[in-house]
Amino acid sequence: MTHANEITSLKKFVRATNFLATSQIYLKQNVLFKRDLKHEDIKPRLLGHWGTCPGINFVYANVNRLIVKHQRDFIYLVGPGHGFPAVQANLFVEGSLSHFYPETIPYNEAGIEDICKKFSAAYGYPSHANPEAPGQILEGGELGYSLSVAWGAVLDNPNLIAACLVGDGESETGPLAASWYANRLVDPATNGAVLPIVHINGYKISGPTRMGRMDHEELDLEFRGLGYHPIIVDDELEEDVFEQMAKAMDLSYEMINDIQTRARNGEDVCKPRWPVILMRTAKGWTGTAEHGGKKLEGNCESHQVIVNKCATDPSHLTALNEWLDSYKFDELCDINAEGEITFDKDIQSLIPPKHLCCGRQHLSYGGEIVRALAQPDLKKLSYGPETPRGSRGVSMYKMGEWMRDAFKLNRDQRNLRIFSPDETYSNQLQAVFEETDRAWQWPIKSWDQDMARDGRVIELLSENLLFGMMHGYTVTGRHAMFPTYEAFSQVVSSMADQYCKYVYASQGVHFRKPVPSCNVVLSSLLERQDHNGYSHQNPSFLGAMLEKHPDIISAYLPADGNTTLTYTERAYEDRDKLNILVAGKKDLPQWLSLDESRKQTEDGVMVWDFASDENPDVVLAGCGDYVTQECMASLVLIRELLPRVRIRFVSVTELNSNGLGSRAFQNKPWMMDEIFTEDKGVVFNYHGYPNTIKKLVFDYKGSRRFRIKGYEEEGSTTTPFDMGVRNGTSRYHLVIDMAYKLFQQGVIDETQHVAITTDMLQRLVEHRNYIKANGVDPKEIENWVWTR
Fold it and tell me: Is the Lyase keyword given for this protein (predicted)?
């Protein structure tokens, strides 16, 4: 194909997809514009965003040209919000919709009628990219995540190029702004490449964008400063914009190929300058230029549906008729009497081979691309049976050892990574550096620690960037962990929500198969944020995620190191989920053997027989590692004071929005009575906000017996134990609450109740006086040891 023929093909392809995008937004019948439109052809409710569609179509056609020319794997991510009519138009033309939906969207006139009638209709097709659409790996409704997801998708996929269209409005979001820094992290020798294309159409929904008012020099300086090689395409330049874009795409491909070839031939490519295309085309390009005295094309007025009264206003309908007629769609395809469609040969020349179409990119579907992790041997990692119960250890360090061994076992598979916001050491995961390093593509100094070009730990101080990269990595079939300070996990709460929506919606799509879980590890927990103070005391992410669908979200709160190991193993076996593992990084008592931990993990709720009496008078429950320590300390105290009282201890280590324990446990509702008894008082000590547990046990008929303790939003820079004191989760508070339950039930009399309560309150006063005078907790608190 000559270059002139390529440009002709591109122009025809974009005309065809612009027509199909417009028809989807407006038409419920006469979708191929075989006659002039009438009012009754128009949908009763016009939805969608026209302004971005021409740019999406323009880039899609140019990506196809590279695929056809080089026969290479591409994936196309669309960042600009609700431009799905354009995506769907291209998926139809390339045949991907008909491949996956042969009955509802055949490759003929009926298929076009289907996508037009159902676009943005009830129970139809959404206005943004979605899992029901082939080739998509990102829900497109929320802006800012496209580029980070693209970077994650190309990790360990050395032959993949992710073309990512970034909207200039989207580029103003925090997550997208941070995503440019991923060029510091991705090794060209072992990974694929991202080709960012910034669509500078100049406007957001009601005003100009920052980039839209920057000149070429300013754009060039900004992206050179970010470490990229900017290539400018501008429809206001003298050269035809199709010619400019074809040259820009060719140059970008050559640069990517050069960087990768040099790196794969052994050259240390420091600071690789990946290309970025800065594409300036008018918002609403090729649509109605002006109407009713308003400038539409090249203005924010074209952001959504223009001439939006076509169902009732003759002037609007006339404008739409002229608009659709301008594409001359009938010249671009033949439709026979049976409705079969054949596109012009020039358009066909830009449709890639079936297996290379963006809509049929196999990396976007899960299933056979997912390789299970080779799992470490927990017997070699766990605290063994010879370890005395109550001996101290660090849960997060055990998790780090598990990840170290998993990296070693899966070295050749290259299907496991950690995405850590600068907290790998702080969160006690440093054992992984015995096997791998932190990835870094810019200069590495001789004194830098554990850094290399091809490290498997992706570390940068941006939760948004790294969570987005993990999204892209897991939905394309690989396994990952996102460890972060508990307080700052809330930064990615909305991103996690979008991920969950994507996974949940995917489960109802026949061609999408399960993908590895997204594993969020919360450490640096609020109970030990005594030194950083109130700003670092925040379990909100856990509570927010426990509002989500129970099939998608599980929260694992292991009480010790061995249970942390069994839940880590469990998390990496899970599919189509977001798991939250909550584990401390300080010395804490170790309670369970490996066999006991496996039993605990199976149900997520377990009576600890070694700490419990038969036929209890009261039940004490703990959920979380630090609060479990306080529970066990309170058992020692109350048994000293009331040796004849019988107490049961229940450990809860798994939660979802259906309630306590695993799904298997929740399918046996009678187990709640069996575990918590039918009539005894329950004191429940929880790691996070008490209301979280209150909601989870609300439907349980015995919930009125529960006294739920947890973080009450009280904190400051203080001592570790005082964090529990301030929030009523300390051992002394638990003794007070158990004594009250025992008094209510008539197990102890008023004199005993008053004496115990007075004793505990006095100890709390003495504790406060001690830490004010000495600045640290008393030795009996710091050095507490479990005794039965």
Answer: yes
Q: Which residue has the tokens 């969570």?
A: 467
What is the DSSP annotation of 230-285?
Answer: EEEEETTSSS-HHHHHHHHHHHHHHHHHHHHHHHHTT----S---EEEEEE--TTT
Q: How many CB atoms lie within 10 A of CB 328?
A: 13
The amino acid at residue 533 is G
CB contact at 8 A, 653 and 395: no
Q: How many CB atoms lie within 10 A of CB 451?
A: 16
Both structure tokens of 355: 């297996």
| DSSP letter string, 183-194 | GGT--TTTS-EE
pLDDT, tens digit, 9 for 90 and up, residues 351-407: 999 999 999 999 999 878 899 999 999 999 999 988 999 999 999 999 999 999 999
CA terminus-to-terminus distance, the chain: 83
Cβ burial, residue 62 (10 Å; 0-12/13-18/19+):
buried
Q: Which amino acid is at 320?
A: L
Residue 593 is encoded by which pair of tokens?
Answer: 């053997």
C-alpha distances out from residue 622 to 185, 601, 625, 629, Å: 41, 15, 8, 9
Per-residue pLDDT, 2: 56
Contact criterion met (CB below 8 Å) for 100 and 361? no
Side-chain-side CA neighbours of 525 within 13 Å: the count stands at: 27
Q: What is the average pLDDT across 197-210? A: 96
Asked whether residue 247 carries a pLDDT value surpassing 90, the answer given is yes
The string of pLDDT tens digits covering residues 708-740 is: 999 999 988 899 999 999 999 999 999 999 999
251, two tokens:
């140059």
Q: How far apart are CA 122 and CA 593, in angstroms?
A: 54
Distance CA 76, CA 463 (A): 24
Coil/strand/helix, residue 120: coil
Helix (H) or strand (E) holding 580: strand 578-582
Measuring CA to CA, which residue among 620, 651, 624, 615 is closest to residue 635?
A: 620
Query: Please, what sign has the CA dihedral across residues 461, 464, 469, 475?
Result: positive
**pTM of structure:** 0.97
Is the Cα dihedral 659, 664, 669, 673 positive or negative? Answer: negative
Q: H helices then E strands: how many in the chain?
A: 26, 26
